[in-house]
Amino acid sequence: MSIHEECGVFGVYDPHGDCARTTYYGLYALQHRGQEACGIATINDRELSFHKDVGLVGEVFSADALDRLGGTMAVGHVRYSTTGGTRRENAQPLTIKYVKGTLAVAHNGNLAGTTELRTAFEYRGAIFQTTTDSELIAYAIAQERLRCRSVEEAVCQALRDLRGAYSLIVMSPQKLIAARDPWGFRPLCMGRRGDAVVFASETCALSAVGAAFERELDPGEIVVVENGGVRSIRENCENASSHMCIFEYIYFARPDSVICGQSVHEARRNAGRFLAREYPVAADVVIGVPDSGLDAAMGYAEESGIPYGTGLVKNRYVGRTFITPGQQSREQAVRIKLGALRSCVQGRRVVMIDDSIVRGTTSRQIVSLLREAGAAEVHMRSSAPPFVSPCYFGTDIPDKDNLIACRYSVEEIRALIGADSLGFLSLDALHQIAPEAACGFCDGCFTGKYPISV
Q1: What GO molecular function annotation could you give as one example from this UniProt entry (predicted)?
Q2: How many other CB atoms are found less than 10 A from the CB of residue 213?
Q3: Catalytic: 406?
Q4: Does domain 7-241 have CATH number 3.60.20.10?
Q5: Residue-wise pLDDT tens digits, 220-258
Q6: pLDDT band at 392 (very low <50, low <70, confident <90, very high)
Q7: Does the annotation flag 245 for ligand binding?
Protein backbone atom coordinates (compact mmCIF):
# COMPACT_ATOMS: atom_id res chain seq x y z
CA MET A 1 0.00 0.00 0.00
CA SER A 2 1.11 3.54 -0.77
CA ILE A 3 0.24 6.66 1.14
CA HIS A 4 -1.97 8.81 -1.02
CA GLU A 5 -2.07 12.55 -1.45
CA GLU A 6 -4.76 14.69 0.08
CA CYS A 7 -5.89 16.93 -2.81
CA GLY A 8 -4.68 19.88 -4.84
CA VAL A 9 -6.33 23.29 -5.24
CA PHE A 10 -5.83 26.02 -7.82
CA GLY A 11 -7.42 29.42 -8.36
CA VAL A 12 -6.88 32.28 -10.79
CA TYR A 13 -8.17 35.79 -11.43
CA ASP A 14 -7.30 37.11 -14.90
CA PRO A 15 -9.33 39.88 -16.53
CA HIS A 16 -7.71 39.19 -19.90
CA GLY A 17 -7.21 35.45 -19.96
CA ASP A 18 -9.01 32.17 -20.40
CA CYS A 19 -9.11 31.12 -16.74
CA ALA A 20 -10.53 27.68 -17.44
CA ARG A 21 -7.52 26.71 -19.54
CA THR A 22 -5.09 28.25 -17.06
CA THR A 23 -6.71 26.19 -14.33
CA TYR A 24 -6.62 23.09 -16.53
CA TYR A 25 -2.84 23.37 -16.89
CA GLY A 26 -2.47 24.15 -13.20
CA LEU A 27 -4.43 21.02 -12.29
CA TYR A 28 -2.29 18.96 -14.64
CA ALA A 29 0.74 20.08 -12.62
CA LEU A 30 -1.05 19.06 -9.41
CA GLN A 31 -2.32 15.71 -10.70
CA HIS A 32 0.09 13.86 -8.39
CA ARG A 33 -1.93 15.10 -5.40
CA GLY A 34 -5.13 13.35 -6.48
CA GLN A 35 -6.17 11.05 -9.30
CA GLU A 36 -9.75 10.12 -8.44
CA ALA A 37 -11.70 13.18 -9.55
CA CYS A 38 -11.22 16.75 -10.68
CA GLY A 39 -13.21 19.85 -11.54
CA ILE A 40 -13.17 23.49 -12.56
CA ALA A 41 -15.67 26.25 -11.77
CA THR A 42 -15.55 29.65 -13.50
CA ILE A 43 -17.21 33.06 -13.43
CA ASN A 44 -18.39 34.74 -16.65
CA ASP A 45 -20.18 38.06 -16.17
CA ARG A 46 -20.97 37.04 -12.59
CA GLU A 47 -22.49 33.73 -13.74
CA LEU A 48 -21.12 30.50 -12.28
CA SER A 49 -20.34 27.53 -14.55
CA PHE A 50 -18.64 24.29 -13.66
CA HIS A 51 -17.54 20.92 -14.99
CA LYS A 52 -16.32 18.02 -12.83
CA ASP A 53 -16.24 14.25 -12.81
CA VAL A 54 -14.30 11.22 -11.63
CA GLY A 55 -11.10 10.59 -13.56
CA LEU A 56 -7.83 12.27 -14.46
CA VAL A 57 -7.61 15.86 -15.67
CA GLY A 58 -6.95 14.80 -19.26
CA GLU A 59 -9.94 12.45 -19.19
CA VAL A 60 -12.49 14.79 -17.62
CA PHE A 61 -11.88 17.94 -19.69
CA SER A 62 -12.29 18.23 -23.44
CA ALA A 63 -11.52 21.31 -25.54
CA ASP A 64 -15.27 21.95 -25.85
CA ALA A 65 -15.74 21.80 -22.07
CA LEU A 66 -12.96 24.32 -21.54
CA ASP A 67 -14.40 26.60 -24.24
CA ARG A 68 -17.77 26.58 -22.49
CA LEU A 69 -16.19 27.40 -19.12
CA GLY A 70 -13.98 30.34 -20.18
CA GLY A 71 -14.01 32.72 -17.25
CA THR A 72 -12.32 35.77 -15.75
CA MET A 73 -12.03 33.83 -12.48
CA ALA A 74 -11.71 30.13 -11.87
CA VAL A 75 -11.11 27.61 -9.12
CA GLY A 76 -10.00 24.02 -9.67
CA HIS A 77 -9.46 20.84 -7.67
CA VAL A 78 -7.88 17.40 -8.00
CA ARG A 79 -9.15 14.90 -5.48
CA TYR A 80 -7.97 11.90 -3.58
CA SER A 81 -10.61 10.74 -1.10
CA THR A 82 -9.35 10.95 2.46
CA THR A 83 -12.96 11.31 3.60
CA GLY A 84 -16.19 10.68 1.75
CA GLY A 85 -15.11 7.95 -0.65
CA THR A 86 -14.92 7.87 -4.44
CA ARG A 87 -18.29 9.17 -5.63
CA ARG A 88 -19.04 11.54 -8.46
CA GLU A 89 -20.96 13.93 -6.21
CA ASN A 90 -17.86 14.30 -4.02
CA ALA A 91 -15.85 15.80 -6.88
CA GLN A 92 -14.86 19.41 -6.29
CA PRO A 93 -15.11 22.37 -6.51
CA LEU A 94 -18.34 22.24 -4.52
CA THR A 95 -20.84 24.71 -5.95
CA ILE A 96 -23.85 26.06 -4.07
CA LYS A 97 -26.67 28.50 -4.75
CA TYR A 98 -28.12 30.31 -1.76
CA VAL A 99 -30.01 33.48 -0.94
CA LYS A 100 -26.91 35.67 -1.37
CA GLY A 101 -25.90 34.18 -4.70
CA THR A 102 -23.42 31.43 -5.60
CA LEU A 103 -20.20 30.02 -4.21
CA ALA A 104 -17.57 27.57 -5.44
CA VAL A 105 -15.29 25.98 -2.85
CA ALA A 106 -12.13 23.87 -3.28
CA HIS A 107 -10.62 22.34 -0.16
CA ASN A 108 -7.43 20.45 0.67
CA GLY A 109 -7.30 18.82 4.12
CA ASN A 110 -9.53 17.27 6.77
CA LEU A 111 -11.57 18.88 9.53
CA ALA A 112 -11.83 17.58 13.08
CA GLY A 113 -15.18 17.00 14.83
CA THR A 114 -17.10 16.65 11.56
CA THR A 115 -19.78 14.30 12.92
CA GLU A 116 -20.96 16.81 15.50
CA LEU A 117 -20.73 19.68 13.02
CA ARG A 118 -22.73 17.84 10.37
CA THR A 119 -25.42 16.91 12.90
CA ALA A 120 -25.70 20.54 14.03
CA PHE A 121 -26.21 21.68 10.43
CA GLU A 122 -28.79 18.96 9.77
CA TYR A 123 -30.83 20.02 12.81
CA ARG A 124 -30.88 23.53 11.32
CA GLY A 125 -32.32 22.15 8.09
CA ALA A 126 -29.23 21.55 5.98
CA ILE A 127 -29.52 18.84 3.32
CA PHE A 128 -26.13 17.41 2.37
CA GLN A 129 -25.44 16.34 -1.20
CA THR A 130 -21.99 14.86 -0.55
CA THR A 131 -20.23 12.84 2.13
CA THR A 132 -17.19 15.13 2.39
CA ASP A 133 -16.27 17.54 5.15
CA SER A 134 -15.64 20.13 2.44
CA GLU A 135 -19.40 20.65 2.18
CA LEU A 136 -19.43 21.61 5.85
CA ILE A 137 -17.09 24.50 5.02
CA ALA A 138 -19.38 25.66 2.20
CA TYR A 139 -22.42 25.56 4.48
CA ALA A 140 -20.57 27.38 7.26
CA ILE A 141 -19.59 30.20 4.89
CA ALA A 142 -23.08 30.47 3.39
CA GLN A 143 -24.64 30.60 6.86
CA GLU A 144 -22.27 33.33 8.03
CA ARG A 145 -22.87 35.29 4.82
CA LEU A 146 -26.47 35.82 5.89
CA ARG A 147 -25.19 37.88 8.83
CA CYS A 148 -22.04 39.43 7.35
CA ARG A 149 -21.60 42.40 5.04
CA SER A 150 -19.24 40.63 2.63
CA VAL A 151 -18.24 37.14 1.57
CA GLU A 152 -14.70 37.59 2.89
CA GLU A 153 -16.07 38.53 6.31
CA ALA A 154 -18.25 35.41 6.17
CA VAL A 155 -15.21 33.27 5.34
CA CYS A 156 -13.29 34.81 8.24
CA GLN A 157 -16.11 34.19 10.72
CA ALA A 158 -16.83 30.65 9.48
CA LEU A 159 -13.23 29.53 9.70
CA ARG A 160 -12.96 30.64 13.31
CA ASP A 161 -15.32 27.83 14.30
CA LEU A 162 -13.55 25.11 12.29
CA ARG A 163 -10.71 22.94 13.57
CA GLY A 164 -8.37 20.88 11.45
CA ALA A 165 -6.58 21.21 8.13
CA TYR A 166 -7.77 23.36 5.27
CA SER A 167 -6.11 25.12 2.43
CA LEU A 168 -9.09 26.69 0.79
CA ILE A 169 -10.08 28.64 -2.32
CA VAL A 170 -13.55 30.24 -2.40
CA MET A 171 -15.03 31.99 -5.44
CA SER A 172 -18.05 34.28 -5.43
CA PRO A 173 -19.34 36.12 -8.51
CA GLN A 174 -16.99 39.06 -7.81
CA LYS A 175 -14.20 37.78 -5.55
CA LEU A 176 -11.57 35.07 -5.33
CA ILE A 177 -10.58 34.21 -1.76
CA ALA A 178 -7.76 31.96 -0.53
CA ALA A 179 -7.31 30.85 3.09
CA ARG A 180 -5.15 28.59 5.27
CA ASP A 181 -5.94 27.08 8.64
CA PRO A 182 -4.20 28.60 11.71
CA TRP A 183 -1.97 25.52 12.07
CA GLY A 184 -0.68 25.67 8.51
CA PHE A 185 -1.04 21.93 7.91
CA ARG A 186 -1.31 22.17 4.13
CA PRO A 187 0.60 24.39 1.71
CA LEU A 188 -0.90 27.24 -0.30
CA CYS A 189 1.02 29.81 -2.32
CA MET A 190 0.33 32.86 -4.47
CA GLY A 191 1.88 34.04 -7.71
CA ARG A 192 1.36 36.57 -10.50
CA ARG A 193 1.35 36.54 -14.28
CA GLY A 194 0.92 40.05 -15.57
CA ASP A 195 -2.46 41.23 -14.27
CA ALA A 196 -3.41 37.71 -13.22
CA VAL A 197 -3.32 36.52 -9.60
CA VAL A 198 -2.84 32.78 -9.08
CA PHE A 199 -3.18 30.52 -6.03
CA ALA A 200 -1.98 26.92 -5.91
CA SER A 201 -1.16 24.09 -3.52
CA GLU A 202 2.40 23.97 -4.86
CA THR A 203 4.82 26.24 -6.69
CA CYS A 204 5.14 23.70 -9.52
CA ALA A 205 1.61 24.67 -10.61
CA LEU A 206 2.58 28.35 -10.74
CA SER A 207 5.50 27.48 -12.99
CA ALA A 208 3.24 25.37 -15.21
CA VAL A 209 1.06 28.40 -16.05
CA GLY A 210 3.91 30.90 -16.33
CA ALA A 211 3.20 32.67 -13.04
CA ALA A 212 6.00 34.02 -10.86
CA PHE A 213 5.96 32.90 -7.24
CA GLU A 214 5.22 35.80 -4.89
CA ARG A 215 4.78 34.25 -1.46
CA GLU A 216 3.08 31.59 0.64
CA LEU A 217 -0.01 32.39 2.63
CA ASP A 218 0.65 32.48 6.36
CA PRO A 219 -1.24 30.15 8.72
CA GLY A 220 -4.64 31.68 9.42
CA GLU A 221 -4.33 34.23 6.62
CA ILE A 222 -7.13 35.06 4.17
CA VAL A 223 -6.27 36.76 0.85
CA VAL A 224 -9.00 38.48 -1.17
CA VAL A 225 -8.77 39.31 -4.89
CA GLU A 226 -11.36 41.78 -6.19
CA ASN A 227 -11.15 43.65 -9.51
CA GLY A 228 -7.44 42.89 -9.64
CA GLY A 229 -6.74 44.31 -6.19
CA VAL A 230 -5.25 42.03 -3.54
CA ARG A 231 -5.64 42.46 0.20
CA SER A 232 -4.88 40.34 3.23
CA ILE A 233 -7.08 39.63 6.27
CA ARG A 234 -5.04 38.55 9.26
CA GLU A 235 -7.62 38.45 12.03
CA ASN A 236 -7.25 34.67 12.34
CA CYS A 237 -3.45 34.85 12.45
CA GLU A 238 -3.21 36.10 16.03
CA ASN A 239 -2.74 32.70 17.67
CA ALA A 240 -1.59 30.86 14.56
CA SER A 241 1.53 28.71 14.40
CA SER A 242 2.92 26.65 11.58
CA HIS A 243 2.70 22.85 11.68
CA MET A 244 3.28 21.95 8.04
CA CYS A 245 2.79 18.25 7.32
CA ILE A 246 6.34 16.86 7.17
CA PHE A 247 5.16 14.28 4.64
CA GLU A 248 4.90 17.03 2.04
CA TYR A 249 8.69 16.84 1.84
CA ILE A 250 8.94 13.07 2.08
CA TYR A 251 6.26 12.11 -0.42
CA PHE A 252 3.38 14.39 -1.35
CA ALA A 253 4.88 17.37 -3.14
CA ARG A 254 6.53 17.32 -6.54
CA PRO A 255 10.33 17.52 -6.28
CA ASP A 256 10.43 20.75 -8.30
CA SER A 257 8.20 22.53 -5.76
CA VAL A 258 9.42 24.81 -2.98
CA ILE A 259 7.54 24.74 0.33
CA CYS A 260 8.25 27.17 3.18
CA GLY A 261 11.36 28.23 1.29
CA GLN A 262 12.75 24.68 1.13
CA SER A 263 13.30 22.78 -2.12
CA VAL A 264 11.44 19.48 -1.91
CA HIS A 265 14.13 17.82 -4.04
CA GLU A 266 16.86 18.91 -1.64
CA ALA A 267 14.87 17.82 1.41
CA ARG A 268 14.59 14.32 -0.03
CA ARG A 269 18.27 14.21 -0.88
CA ASN A 270 18.99 15.27 2.70
CA ALA A 271 16.88 12.37 3.95
CA GLY A 272 19.00 10.02 1.87
CA ARG A 273 22.19 11.51 3.24
CA PHE A 274 21.02 11.00 6.81
CA LEU A 275 20.04 7.41 6.02
CA ALA A 276 23.55 6.75 4.71
CA ARG A 277 25.03 8.05 7.97
CA GLU A 278 22.58 6.21 10.21
CA TYR A 279 22.46 2.93 8.30
CA PRO A 280 25.65 2.38 6.28
CA VAL A 281 26.10 -0.93 4.49
CA ALA A 282 28.57 -2.53 2.08
CA ALA A 283 26.82 -2.53 -1.29
CA ASP A 284 27.38 -2.18 -5.03
CA VAL A 285 24.48 0.05 -6.13
CA VAL A 286 21.85 2.38 -4.64
CA ILE A 287 18.41 2.49 -6.27
CA GLY A 288 15.19 4.36 -5.50
CA VAL A 289 11.55 3.28 -5.71
CA PRO A 290 9.91 5.65 -8.24
CA ASP A 291 9.09 8.40 -7.83
CA SER A 292 9.55 9.83 -4.35
CA GLY A 293 12.34 7.43 -3.43
CA LEU A 294 14.60 8.55 -6.26
CA ASP A 295 15.86 11.80 -4.74
CA ALA A 296 16.56 10.14 -1.39
CA ALA A 297 18.47 7.41 -3.22
CA MET A 298 20.62 10.08 -4.87
CA GLY A 299 21.40 11.53 -1.46
CA TYR A 300 22.27 8.11 -0.05
CA ALA A 301 24.59 7.43 -2.97
CA GLU A 302 26.32 10.82 -2.66
CA GLU A 303 26.89 10.42 1.06
CA SER A 304 27.96 6.77 0.96
CA GLY A 305 30.03 6.83 -2.22
CA ILE A 306 28.09 3.83 -3.57
CA PRO A 307 27.10 4.30 -7.24
CA TYR A 308 23.52 5.33 -7.98
CA GLY A 309 21.59 3.23 -10.48
CA THR A 310 18.16 2.85 -12.06
CA GLY A 311 17.11 -0.50 -10.67
CA LEU A 312 13.34 -0.07 -10.89
CA VAL A 313 11.40 1.19 -13.89
CA LYS A 314 7.88 2.61 -13.50
CA ASN A 315 5.12 2.00 -16.02
CA ARG A 316 3.65 5.50 -16.37
CA TYR A 317 0.67 4.41 -18.43
CA VAL A 318 -1.17 2.52 -15.71
CA GLY A 319 -3.95 4.60 -14.18
CA ARG A 320 -5.56 4.05 -10.80
CA THR A 321 -8.66 2.64 -12.50
CA PHE A 322 -6.63 -0.45 -13.36
CA ILE A 323 -6.50 -1.50 -9.70
CA THR A 324 -9.31 -3.71 -8.44
CA PRO A 325 -10.07 -4.63 -4.83
CA GLY A 326 -8.47 -7.65 -3.24
CA GLN A 327 -4.99 -8.58 -2.11
CA GLN A 328 -4.20 -10.64 -5.21
CA SER A 329 -5.13 -7.76 -7.49
CA ARG A 330 -3.03 -5.32 -5.45
CA GLU A 331 -0.03 -7.63 -5.67
CA GLN A 332 -0.46 -7.98 -9.42
CA ALA A 333 -0.73 -4.19 -9.71
CA VAL A 334 2.74 -3.78 -8.23
CA ARG A 335 4.19 -5.99 -10.96
CA ILE A 336 2.35 -4.06 -13.63
CA LYS A 337 3.49 -0.70 -12.27
CA LEU A 338 7.13 -1.58 -11.49
CA GLY A 339 9.75 -3.63 -13.26
CA ALA A 340 13.24 -4.52 -12.05
CA LEU A 341 16.16 -3.65 -14.35
CA ARG A 342 18.20 -6.87 -14.39
CA SER A 343 21.28 -5.26 -15.91
CA CYS A 344 21.51 -2.92 -12.91
CA VAL A 345 20.90 -5.35 -10.04
CA GLN A 346 21.92 -8.83 -11.16
CA GLY A 347 24.65 -10.26 -8.97
CA ARG A 348 24.89 -7.00 -6.98
CA ARG A 349 24.34 -5.96 -3.40
CA VAL A 350 21.50 -3.44 -3.67
CA VAL A 351 20.45 -0.62 -1.34
CA MET A 352 16.80 0.15 -2.09
CA ILE A 353 15.35 3.47 -0.86
CA ASP A 354 11.60 4.00 -0.55
CA ASP A 355 9.70 6.91 0.98
CA SER A 356 7.96 4.83 3.69
CA ILE A 357 6.63 1.45 4.77
CA VAL A 358 2.94 1.26 5.67
CA ARG A 359 1.54 -2.29 5.67
CA GLY A 360 4.72 -3.82 4.27
CA THR A 361 3.02 -5.74 1.44
CA THR A 362 4.33 -3.48 -1.33
CA SER A 363 7.84 -3.49 0.13
CA ARG A 364 7.82 -7.28 0.22
CA GLN A 365 6.76 -7.46 -3.42
CA ILE A 366 9.45 -5.02 -4.55
CA VAL A 367 12.15 -6.91 -2.66
CA SER A 368 10.89 -10.07 -4.38
CA LEU A 369 11.09 -8.38 -7.79
CA LEU A 370 14.72 -7.45 -7.18
CA ARG A 371 15.63 -10.96 -6.07
CA GLU A 372 13.94 -12.43 -9.14
CA ALA A 373 16.08 -10.06 -11.24
CA GLY A 374 19.19 -11.55 -9.66
CA ALA A 375 20.05 -9.16 -6.80
CA ALA A 376 22.55 -10.84 -4.48
CA GLU A 377 21.43 -8.80 -1.46
CA VAL A 378 18.64 -6.26 -0.90
CA HIS A 379 19.08 -3.71 1.89
CA MET A 380 15.99 -1.56 2.35
CA ARG A 381 16.01 1.97 3.73
CA SER A 382 12.96 4.14 4.42
CA SER A 383 13.28 7.92 4.14
CA ALA A 384 10.55 8.24 6.79
CA PRO A 385 10.42 6.93 10.37
CA PRO A 386 8.01 4.07 11.17
CA PHE A 387 4.31 4.99 11.09
CA VAL A 388 2.84 4.55 14.56
CA SER A 389 -0.39 6.59 14.35
CA PRO A 390 -3.04 7.55 11.78
CA CYS A 391 -3.35 11.01 10.28
CA TYR A 392 -6.45 13.12 10.99
CA PHE A 393 -5.57 16.08 8.79
CA GLY A 394 -5.92 14.94 5.20
CA THR A 395 -3.69 11.93 4.61
CA ASP A 396 -5.02 8.38 4.28
CA ILE A 397 -2.63 6.78 6.77
CA PRO A 398 -4.71 3.89 8.19
CA ASP A 399 -5.43 3.04 11.81
CA LYS A 400 -2.88 1.27 13.99
CA ASP A 401 -4.23 -2.19 13.23
CA ASN A 402 -3.02 -1.76 9.64
CA LEU A 403 0.37 -0.19 10.39
CA ILE A 404 3.11 -2.81 10.33
CA ALA A 405 5.33 -0.84 12.74
CA CYS A 406 2.61 -1.04 15.41
CA ARG A 407 2.65 -4.83 15.34
CA TYR A 408 6.24 -5.82 14.67
CA SER A 409 9.78 -4.82 15.59
CA VAL A 410 12.20 -3.54 12.95
CA GLU A 411 13.88 -6.96 12.81
CA GLU A 412 10.51 -8.66 12.40
CA ILE A 413 9.55 -6.24 9.62
CA ARG A 414 12.86 -6.97 7.88
CA ALA A 415 12.11 -10.67 7.94
CA LEU A 416 8.52 -10.16 6.73
CA ILE A 417 9.55 -8.11 3.68
CA GLY A 418 12.48 -10.40 2.93
CA ALA A 419 15.27 -7.80 3.04
CA ASP A 420 18.82 -8.48 4.19
CA SER A 421 18.75 -5.35 6.36
CA LEU A 422 16.31 -2.55 7.11
CA GLY A 423 16.65 0.99 8.39
CA PHE A 424 14.16 3.79 9.06
CA LEU A 425 15.05 7.49 9.14
CA SER A 426 15.29 8.62 12.76
CA LEU A 427 12.99 11.27 14.22
CA ASP A 428 16.00 13.49 14.92
CA ALA A 429 17.08 13.34 11.29
CA LEU A 430 13.51 13.83 10.08
CA HIS A 431 13.43 17.35 11.50
CA GLN A 432 16.72 18.19 9.83
CA ILE A 433 15.84 17.27 6.25
CA ALA A 434 14.36 20.72 5.55
CA PRO A 435 16.80 23.19 7.17
CA GLU A 436 15.71 26.05 4.88
CA ALA A 437 12.04 25.73 5.78
CA ALA A 438 10.69 28.73 7.66
CA CYS A 439 7.98 26.75 9.42
CA GLY A 440 7.34 24.13 12.07
CA PHE A 441 6.13 20.63 11.30
CA CYS A 442 3.43 18.14 12.20
CA ASP A 443 4.90 14.65 12.69
CA GLY A 444 1.91 13.07 14.44
CA CYS A 445 1.89 9.98 12.20
CA PHE A 446 5.42 9.18 13.45
CA THR A 447 5.02 10.24 17.10
CA GLY A 448 1.31 10.09 17.97
CA LYS A 449 1.55 13.73 19.10
CA TYR A 450 -0.63 16.21 17.22
CA PRO A 451 -0.77 20.03 17.20
CA ILE A 452 -4.46 19.92 18.16
CA SER A 453 -6.55 17.38 20.04
CA VAL A 454 -8.19 14.74 17.84
Answers
A1: amidophosphoribosyltransferase activity
A2: 16
A3: no
A4: yes
A5: 999 999 999 999 999 999 888 899 999 999 999 999 999
A6: confident
A7: yes
